[in-house]
Amino acid sequence: MYKTVEETAKDIGMPEHQILQYIYNGRIKAVHDGEQFLINSRQFDTYHEQLERIKEEIEIWRSTPIPDDVDVKDED
Questions:
Q1: 14 with 20: CB under 8 angstroms?
Q2: Is 53 a domain residue?
Q3: C-beta neighbour count of 40 within 10 angstroms
Q4: What is the pLDDT of residue 4?
Q5: How many domains does the chain have?
Q6: What mean pLDDT comes out for the span 39-53?
Q7: Is position 68 within any domain?
Q8: pTM score, two decimals?
Q9: Would you say which domain of life the source belongs to (predicted)?
Q10: Does residue 69 sit within a domain?
Q11: CB count, 10 Å around CB of 8?
């Protein structure tokens, strides 16, 4: 599915000017139809999958209690 720069920016949470800069630098693949750039949104599937996995890992990390350290001694 092809999306405009504006739609892509909203989907991945980046400013439009940064999306355009990435297109010009070749980091995002796009086609120009004479009026605007169109971006195939499938190229971001891996990005979205990795983002979701990282969010899950952060949530697991936050919910894991800190273990008691047996080497800590109160010397005060």
A1: no
A2: yes
A3: 14
A4: 94
A5: 1
A6: 87
A7: no
A8: 0.62
A9: Bacteria
A10: no
A11: 24
